[in-house]
Amino acid sequence: xxxxxxxxxxxxxxxxxxxxxxxxxxxxxxxxxxxxxxxxxxxxxxxxxxxxxxxxxxxxxxxxxxxxxxxxxxxxxxxxxxxxxxxxxxxxxxxxxxxxxxxxxxxxxxxxxxxxxxxxxxxxxxxxxxxxxxxxxxxxxxxxxxxxxxxxxxxxxxxxxxxxxxxxxxxxxxxxxxxxxxxxxxxxxxxxxxxxxxxxxxxxxxxxxxxxxxxxxxxxxxxxxxxxxxxxxxxxxxxxxxxxxx
Length: 246
Ligand code: CA
What we know:
Layout: E1 2-11, E2 21-26, E3 31-38, H1 43-62, H2 71-92, E4 100-109, E5 112-118, E6 122-127, E7 130-133, H3 140-146, H4 152-157, E8 177-182, E9 188-192, H5 194-197, H6 202-211, H7 215-228, E10 235-245
Antiparallel strand pairs: 1-10, 2-3, 3-4, 4-5, 5-8, 6-7, 6-9, 9-10
Helix pairs in contact: 1-2, 6-7
The structure holds calcium ion.
């Protein structure tokens, strides 16, 4: 097992009344989650907290059984359970119709980690000073960029930049992106909601992650910088440092 140091922070955006983001740091199972809910009234909050709780509980209840499932399979099943749970809530209370949530999850096991995501919450890794984005946004503007119809600069300011094409609780069969990444001592991971990435450029995020002495400091700095720019949306960050084997 590698030694991990982790911190998380979430703040409500200037244009919001409720914080619709939710995160969890589970150091017992080395599971780290960020979710960004959507829906009218306070329903985004319900969606993101339901999904986070369901994924955490599923991994927590499965882990002691250790049935030999890979971390990737475990996460994918947990996402499907969470999706079903959000849909069940909507069926039980039709006023919740339209709620959904993004989720990005990192489940670390030794020298590897499984990453699962749906929507536009992201995972970055800082390794030897180089920042890499490890997830691909499930957004309309990202699809347009991939197809060559929009530049990155146009996508950043596009009026439809917030439209996600996949969400837990969304319509149709849930498609979860799953990947395995290696984990090395000295790596610093960042999970975040789009409240961070629509305000700060990747270069700025990288600079902050390179210079902050601890995960706690990095979280504080990222959120403060977003607030100073009057970030309108909720901002959530989880920063994880990978240490030597314990
Ligand atoms: Ca958001």
